[in-house]
Specification:
The complex is a heterodimer of chains A (259) and B (240). Chain A is α/β, with parallel strands linked by helices and 259 residues long. Chain A is built from 8 helices and 9 strands. Chain A is globular and about 50 Å long. By secondary structure, chain B is an all-alpha fold. Chain B contains 10 helices and no strands. The chains are: A alpha/beta (259), B mainly alpha (240).
Chain lengths: 259, 240
C-alpha cells in the first residue's frame, strides 16, 4: 500500500447532492471515515449508496457541504474504485492493468512486475493475453479489482462488486477484498446483500432516501441498530419503508425523515 | 445500346492494357485523395474528440456547425480556395493554384468536417461508457482522447472511409483549384467530366469503372481488416 502520507480520515460535512432541477438525492450527510477495515454501505434501492461513493471518490461534486481528505492535495492518487459493471478497455487483460499504471507514470519494468503480481493474486495469469471483453463477468470483475489493486490505493471504493455474480464468483471477490484489507487498504463498499454485509463489514453506514441514518460498528449495528428503519431493514421486513402509516399516534413526523 | 457496349469494351481495353495516361490519372487521384484524407484525419479526429469531451460556451453551436459543414458544396469550397490561392489572394505568393497541393487543400476542407463530426459521435458514445472509469483511474479529459480514439478504432475506420468516399468522388472543387491540366492536375473525376464533354465515352467510362473499382476495393480491404481485427478481439464470436 502507498503509505507516503495517509489520506484518511475522510470527513463529510453537511453534504448535499441535488439534480439539475434541484431535487435532493443526498441530504445533509455528516460523518467521518477513518483508516483501516471495511466500511459497508447498505440501504434500499434509491437510498443514494452509489451516489455517496461517487461523491467520496470525487467523480461528482457535492451541491453543498464539504468533503475533505486529511491529505489536502493529491488524495485522488491514493484512491481507486471498482464499479458494479466492470468497464473493460478494448485491449488485453494485461494491457488493462498496464493502462492504469501508465497513467500513474510508473516505469515499465516496475509495471510489468506489478501486473504479474496482481494477475497471479486474482487468478488471471493464464488469461493475461486474452482480450478483456472475452472474459466472463466474474473474471471481468476480478480484472477490475486487479486493476484497482495494482494502484496500491489507500482507499478502495467498491460499488456492489458482487451484485451480478454467482456465489462462487462472489466468494472469490470477497476473499480478494479480505486480502486487500489485510494489506492496510480501507475498503468502502456498497452492497444489497445483508449476508455479505454481516460477513464483511467492520462498520456499517445505513442510508435511506439520501440520508445517513446510522453509522456504527458492524457488531453494534447488527445486534442493536438504533434507527427503527435500520431495525426493520436488517430484519428483512418488506414493509419497513412504510413507516409513518397507521394511526396518528404511530406516525412519525420527524422532518429529518421527510423526502 | 451499341454505343454503350462499344464504350464499355473500349474501357475494359484501356484498363487491361494499363494505358499510361489512365495510370497517371489514377495515381494522381489516389495520391491527392489519400493525402487529403490523412491530413483531415489527423486534424478532424482530435477536434471531434475534443468537442465530444469538453464543455465550453458554444459547444452545441460548434457541433451543429460541424454537422452542417458535412454537406459543404464542393464548388463553393473550390471557389474559396481559388480566391485564397490566386495571385490576388492572401496565399497567392506561394503559387499553389493549379497544383495537386491546391487540390489537397480543397479536399482537406471538405473532408475534415465529415471526419470531425462522425468522430464526435463515436467518441461521445464511448465516453459515456468509459467516463467514470477513466476519471477514477486519474485520466484527464485530454489524456482520455487518445484512449478513446484507440478503443473506438473499429468504428473510426468507417469514419475514415466515409471521408475517403467524399474525397475520391468529388469533382467541383478539384476542377476549380486544379484546373484539370493534362499530366499535372487531371484526376479521375475531372477527366471523366472532360471526356464526356468531348464525347470520348470510352475513356470516360473506363475511368468511371476504375473509380468505382478503386473505391470499392479500398472500402472492402478496410472492412476486411476491421472485421478480422474485431473477430480477433471477440474470439471469433462475431456472428455474420
Amino acid at each position: 500500500m502507498n503509505n507516503a502520507s495517509n489520506v484518511l480520515p475522510l470527513v463529510l460535512d453537511n453534504v448535499w447532492y441535488r439534480t439539475l432541477d434541484g431535487m435532493p438525492l443526498i441530504k445533509e450527510i455528516t460523518t467521518t471515515l477513518k483508516a483501516g477495515g471495511k466500511a459497508v454501505i447498505i440501504g434500499p434501492n434509491g437510498a443514494g449508496k452509489s451516489l455517496f461513493l461517487r461523491l467520496c471518490h470525487g467523480l461528482i461534486e457535492p451541491s453543498e457541504g464539504n468533503i475533505k481528505w486529511q491529505l489536502a492535495s493529491g488524495a485522488a492518487a491514493h484512491q481507486a474504485m471498482v464499479f458494479q459493471r466492470p468497464v473493460m478497455l478494448r485491449r488485453t487483460v494485461r494491457a488493462n492493468v498496464d493502462y492504469a499504471l501508465h497513467l500513474q507514470k510508473i516505469a515499465p519494468p516496475t509495471r510489468s512486475q506489478i501486473i504479474n503480481d496482481v494477475l497471479e493474486k486474482t487468478g488471471l495469469s493464464r488469461l493475461a493475453d486474452t482480450q478483456a471483453r472475452l472474459l466472463s463477468f466474474g473474471e471481468q470483475q476480478r480484472l477490475a479489482l486487479a486493476r484497482a489493486w495494482a494502484l496500491k490505493p489507500q482507499v478502495l471504493f467498491m460499488d456492489e462488486p458482487t451484485a451480478s455474480l454467482d456465489p462462487s464468483a462472489a466468494y472469490l471477490i470477497e476473499q480478494l477484498i479480505e486480502t486487500i484489507t489485510a494489506q492496510g487498504t480501507k475498503i468502502i463498499m456498497t452492497t444489497h446483500d445483508l449476508g455479505q454485509a454481516r460477513r464483511m463489514a467492520d462498520e456499517v453506514l445505513f442510508l435511506h432516501r439520501g440520508r445517513l441514518l446510522e453509522h456504527a460498528p458492524a457488531e453494534q449495528f447488527f445486534s442493536a441498530p438504533k434507527n427503527d428503519l435500520a431495525q426493520a431493514f436488517i430484519k428483512g421486513e418488506l414493509l419497513w419503508w412504510r413507516r409513518g402509516e397507521g394511526s396518528d399516534d404511530a406516525k412519525r413526523h420527524d422532518p429529518k425523515h421527510a423526502r | 445500346m451499341t454505343d454503350f457496349s462499344d464504350a464499355f469494351q473500349a474501357a475494359l481495353g484501356l484498363i487491361v492494357t494499363l494505358d499510361s495516361d489512365l495510370a497517371e490519372i489514377v495515381a494522381l487521384s489516389l495520391g491527392v485523395s489519400l493525402t487529403a484524407v490523412t491530413i483531415a484525419t489527423v486534424i478532424g479526429m482530435p477536434v471531434g474528440a475534443m468537442v465530444a469531451l469538453f464543455r465550453f460556451p458554444g459547444r452545441h453551436g460548434l457541433s451543429v456547425f460541424l454537422n452542417a459543414l458535412m454537406g459543404l458544396p464542393p464548388v463553393v469550397v473550390g471557389l474559396i480556395v481559388y480566391l485564397m490561392l490566386s495571385r490576388m489572394g492572401p496565399f497567392g505568393v506561394f503559387g499553389l493554384l493549379f497544383t495537386p497541393t491546391a487540390m489537397i487543400i480543397a479536399q482537406v476542407l471538405l473532408v475534415t468536417p465529415i471526419i470531425a463530426a462522425l468522430t464526435r459521435q463515436v467518441v461521445e458514445d464511448l465516453w459515456r461508457e468509459y467516463r467514470e472509469q477513466l476519471m477514477s483511474l486519474g485520466a484527464s479529459k485530454m489524456r482520455a482522447i487518445p484512449t478513446l480514439l484507440w478503443d473506438g478504432r473499429f468504428s473510426l475506420v468507417t469514419v475514415v472511409l466515409a471521408g475517403f468516399g467524399r474525397a475520391s468522388a468529388e469533382v467541383g472543387a478539384v476542377m476549380i483549384v486544379g484546373g484539370n491540366i493534362d499530366h499535372a492536375t487531371r484526376v479521375m473525376t475531372t477527366a471523366i467530366a472532360l471526356e464526356v464533354s468531348k464525347g470520348n465515352l470510352a475513356l470516360a467510362l473506363g475511368l468511371g469503372i476504375l473509380l468505382i473499382a478503386l473505391s470499392a476495393t479500398i472500402g472492402a480491404v478496410a472492412y476486411i481488416i476491421k472485421e478480422r481485427a474485431e473477430r480477433r478481439m471477440s474470439g471469433g464470436m462475431l456472428g455474420g
